[in-house]
Amino acid sequence: MKQGFVETRNYTKFMEGMTALEARGSVECRLVVVDGLPGLGKTTILHRWAAMEDCIYLRAKTEWSAYWMMSELLIGLGVSDAEIPRGHEKRFRACIAALSERLARAQTARQQFAIVIDEADHVSGKSALVDTIRDFTDLTEVPFVLVGMGRIRDNLTKHPQTASRISRYIRFEPAGIDDVQVFLDRKCAIPVAPDLASFVAQATRGFNREILEAIVSIERFGQRNAPAGPEGLTLREMAGEHLINDRKSGQAIMVPGR
């Protein structure tokens, strides 16, 4: 499989949302919620964006408390274990100071700075965590990007003071045929004809994980059986071959004859 990042519609939607965040008039609207089903590329996109922008990427844990979250946040901000203060109030103040200092550096360099919290469903159902994040955004103006699945929206509506500060909801959707074609062009080492690409879109239901799994199957077959025509490997040429396993049933999905 070829190396490289695929800029899908979900990626474009996320980037547009972050650009819009910078244009917001109210400094209180510093929260972005990214949600969608598993396998749509949320973690890949957000982790990559955080690394490129020198932002902080955290993964929420099932048993996260506000105290534990603040410890991981301080480590992400460059504070050593030995320097992390004990006691909730001292740790909170240390987070405020570190966030403010990091934001000032980013503004001087004309860069965007934010905290990304993945698996944020673990956060959205806990009042103490939600309130702590709201306090951080209010007191420092540092944006927080909460990444989760469908229930994160419902959970946050139970916290109206926090929900009112959400600048934008960004929902990741399954890839359409255009996105699937981009995946195949950028990642697959074997050229793929339109009819096979269309079946990949249908079989994978637009989930990134399954698209990548399909690419592995196509490459494995194509390395043994080179495409006959200039368009690439066709549906007929790969007929009867295993493409992916269905994510719901676990059953193998085979390439049809046409």
UniProtKB/TrEMBL annotation:
Signal peptide: none annotated. Residues 29-155 form the ORC1/DEAH AAA+ ATPase domain. It comes from the Bacteria. SUPFAM superfamilies: P-loop containing nucleoside triphosphate hydrolases. PANTHER family: GENERAL SECRETION PATHWAY PROTEIN A-RELATED, MU-LIKE PROPHAGE FLUMU DNA TRANSPOSITION PROTEIN B. This is Transposase. One of its GO terms (molecular function) is ATP hydrolysis activity.
